[in-house]
Amino acid sequence: MSQFNFSSLSMAALFSRAFKMSFVSDIPALALAKALTRSFRASVLLAVVSSGSVLAFERQETQQQVGHTHEASNQVKKSSQASLQNRANEQHKDNERQHKADIASTVDKNLSKEQAHQHGNKTQTSAGLDENIHGEAISLSPEKMAIAGIEVAAISPKVFANNVYAPGEIKANGYKSYIVSPRTESVVISRHATLGQHVEKGDALVTLFSESVAEAQATYRVAYNDWQRNKKLGKETVSESRLLTTETDYISAYSRLKAFGLTEAAIAQVVTYNSANTDLAELGEYTLIAQREGAVLSDDFSQGQRVSAGDAIMVLADESELWVEARVSPNKQLNLPKGTQAVIDMSEQFFVATVIQEAHTIDPKTRTRIVRLAVKNDHDRLHPGMFVKVNFRFETDQEVMAVPESALLRSSDGDWTVFVERHSGEFTAVEVKLGRALGNYREIIGLAAETRIVTKGAFFVASEIAKGGFDPHNH
Description:
about 30% strand
């Protein structure tokens, strides 16, 4: 409206000025008035149009500003709603985690109360278990656990067998072995058995020659003949003292040959001759025979060799049952009464042995005590001289909590930990205390019965936790 008024005033001034000039220039007043009137109408119309355009422009500008303001307000409103939604989601997640923690705490408390009721003050409560939790939890999908070979199992108190290792050596059974040796100085004439050969009782082993045996054979021949002659004559012809003397000489000569190792058959051959066919060369030769069946474990001699009385020229042994001499450290206070069983490991072949003797002295060379066991060798797979592993088995007196060695990991501060599955696929490192070694298992203290732990793949779980940027064993 300001522009319209301005234009109207301008036109009025122009009209007045033109009217004055009409008297000067003799222009007819009426014509001038008409012209000015038409010009005024045009001006007024132009002013009105101009004013409407301005108003329309201002209205459009205002509407655009309002539109921009409304749009900005909508954006602010949407941003505020999104922020509120995010806060609500976070609050919901926090509530969910708190709810799960409350459930886990309640379950642990119930388990701890039940275990405390069963085992008294020996068990640990849920609060104590929570104090041993290390770091944060991690969740793994079933597919990832399958790929990594992670196995989870619940542990419970059981009676475990404890294995104690000791090195051992296979020995010949001393009660079923026989040493072949001359009982007087002799010379080896020939052998009849070789190393490793299995011989039966009564088989010839080696033939020897000895001057002492020759003398004893000759004495036996004389004594045998005198005794036979006097016995035939009888007491009517021969005095009783003479008869007793010849009998005593005969028994003495016979016993001497037996002492040299001659058999009854060999002694009988000494007197089976006649005066027309006397083979003096046979005197002095004698053959040693096997006193029991078994294998020839050694034959350390050569033909023509002179051997002394008592020298071991052959060793026979029955290998159906052998000895195992286990050398146990004296520091290990083991109760190994007769009849205690052990497992013999020889190149992944296992045999059951039984304790038959235990030495009460310490070997001065190895500083160990020897425990002797008997083992059956049914398939002839064991031989004297073999080194084996001896594992003594001891069962615990009562039920204990134990986990596989593969489930234990050391934390950065040196504590032993296991990974406990509190929820499906969610694992947390929990500190435990170690007890006795039970073979491939280890006694632990600090977990309630039926707790599910990672028994295989614990290292993978620890590495996955480490990828999250925090120490899985950090307090």
